[in-house]
Design brief:
By secondary structure, this protein is mostly beta strands. About 5% of the residues lie in helices and about 45% in strands. It contains 1 helix and 11 strands, in the order ββββββαβββββ.
């Protein structure tokens, strides 16, 4: 069974950090290799039932339609997607794709983690998918999931408009309280 595609548009302010910024250090961000992306404060999530499982797709983004993140050059603008069987707060093992997620027994805490870079520019974007690791999910008082992950390897999966020129075949993703 294929997971029904979900299209979620997310727009929010924010941008990548710069060592010269005098603002306070961000508390919600992610890194792809040496590039930092600060949570823009808006996200979206939806849950559907697939094969008897409550599958949640949660998306967090830095980019705005007006190009809010411009500090990472061709890599400016990023979004994270977490696709997981919604079993509440706890640790989820990373699986490489949606088919693997759906094939697992009901109740298995697993997640697909995707990161797209280059969405704030018109020169192309590149999607990376985590190949292994663990994602920690916490739920805030409003019921919104928060995601954190120690360094995990990602592999290039898709390119839009030719992708980010020179984008490597793999990058390391770290997530700190993305929501």
């Amino acid at each position: 069974l294929a997971l029904a595609p979900a299209i979620i548009l997310v727009g929010c302010g924010g941008g990548g950090g710069d060592a010269g910024d005098s603002a306070a250090a961000p508390t919600s961000y992610w890194t792809m290799d040496s590039r930092t992306y600060v949570n823009g404060g808006a996200s979206s999530s939806s849950t559907t039932t697939t094969s008897g499982k409550p599958i949640t797709v949660a998306v967090v983004s830095t980019a705005t339609l007006s190009g809010g993140d411009a500090s990472n050059g061709a890599y400016s603008g990023s979004s994270l997607s977490f696709i997981f069987e919604n079993a509440g707060a706890g640790s989820y093992v990373v699986v490489p794709d949606r088919a693997s997620l759906i094939a697992l027994p009901i109740g298995t805490r697993a997640a697909v983690v995707e990161c797209i870079v280059g969405i704030a520019v018109t020169t192309g974007s590149t999607q990376y998918v985590a190949s292994s690791g663990t994602v920690n999910v916490s739920i805030d008082a409003a019921g919104k999931p928060h995601f954190s992950a120690a360094p995990m390897s990602t592999v290039k999966a898709n390119e839009v408009l030719g992708g980010v020129a020179g984008a490597p075949s793999s990058m390391t993703l770290v997530v700190v309280d993305a929501y």
